[in-house]
């Protein structure tokens, strides 16, 4: 992942980068609730942050996955923002509006970066919800700064169960065979049915036509790190996730995290859709 140097080649071309940015701008223009946009300068790269919801409400940070941006939260943000101060953070080095920088995930750099963003918004402790790489980012931050996380919600998080490259390797090969190959690749990796979720797969295919995904393995958190997660936690795992082993993820969280609630979503793969109401119920618990 190349330390903290800028990775300018996260897109296949500048024209492709423009296509992705323009599509994201269209999604932000159609955002279902009023939103404010910020660009936060950090020691690791300039970061795009969206804020919405009740400015006096309890804070909630939302972190998307790899190969995505904060638009993944669009369909549920209205519910999340009803009573909360919501911050949606575009991860560095992903197809959002933050800098094309990929930090060394074996160092504290990612947690330091997120801490700096919270400081900028004068947030001490917050709830955090993260998907996949966003789940890794949330977990990493919570293990290093447990006093700054009130509740932690993870959806198919990286870094806890084994990364099962062998199950998705055929998908990466298919992506070289034009639009049909990319479509089939997206179906395999996400576990989504093309007939049931055509629009979601269309968005993924558009991104991966132009974006270069991460290829390195995500670091696994050791037992000592996970044992520091003593805050209330919800983990939603796809029963058929081909990217991160859900059985191993569940076993480690149940064994090591005293207040973890782990739920397998029947039939779901790595893309577990429609879970915002479940996350809201968890965040609202006394």
TrEMBL record:
Swiss-Prot/TrEMBL keywords: Hydrolase
AB hydrolase-1 domain sequence ranges: 60-275
Report which superkingdom the organism of origin falls in: Bacteria
Keyword field contains Flavoprotein = no
Under the GO molecular function aspect, what terms does this record hold? carboxylesterase activity
Looking up Pfam families in the UniProt record yields: Abhydrolase_6 (PF12697)
- Among its keywords, does the record have Transmembrane helix? no
What's its EC? 3.1.1.1
UniProt enzyme class? hydrolase
Q: Which InterPro entries match?
A: AB_hydrolase_1, AB_hydrolase_fold
Q: What is this protein called?
A: Putative carboxylesterase nap
This protein's gene is called nap_1
């Amino acid at each position: 992942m190349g330390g903290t140097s800028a990775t300018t080649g996260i897109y296949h071309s500048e024209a492709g980068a423009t296509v992705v940015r323009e599509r994201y701008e269209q999604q932000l223009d159609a955002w279902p609730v009023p939103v404010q946009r910020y660009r936060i300068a950090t020691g690791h790269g300039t970061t795009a942050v969206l804020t919405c919801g009740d400015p006096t409400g309890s804070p909630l940070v939302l972190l998307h996955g790899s190969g995505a941006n904060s638009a993944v939260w669009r369909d549920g943000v209205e519910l999340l923002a009803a009573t909360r101060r919501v911050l949606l953070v575009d991860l560095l080095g992903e197809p959002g509006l933050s800098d094309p920088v990929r930090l060394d995930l074996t160092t504290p750099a990612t947690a330091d970066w997120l801490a700096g963003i919270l400081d900028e918004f004068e947030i001490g402790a917050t709830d955090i919800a993260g998907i996949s790489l966003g789940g890794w980012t949330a977990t990493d931050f919570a293990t290093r700064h447990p006093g700054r996380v009130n509740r932690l919600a993870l959806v198919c998080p990286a870094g806890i169960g084994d990364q099962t490259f062998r199950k998705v390797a055929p998908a990466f090969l298919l992506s070289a065979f034009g639009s049909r190959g990319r479509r089939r690749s997206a179906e395999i990796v996400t576990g989504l049915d093309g007939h049931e979720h055509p629009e979601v797969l269309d968005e993924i295919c558009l991104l991966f036509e132009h974006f270069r995904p991460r290829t390195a393995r995500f670091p696994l958190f050791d037992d000592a790190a996970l044992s520091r997660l003593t805050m209330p936690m919800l983990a939603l795992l796809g029963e058929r996730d081909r990217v991160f082993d859900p059985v191993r993820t569940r076993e480690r969280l149940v064994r090591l995290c005293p207040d973890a609630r782990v739920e397998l979503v029947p039939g779901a793969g790595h893309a577990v859709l429609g879970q915002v109401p479940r996350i809201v119920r968890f965040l609202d618990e006394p």
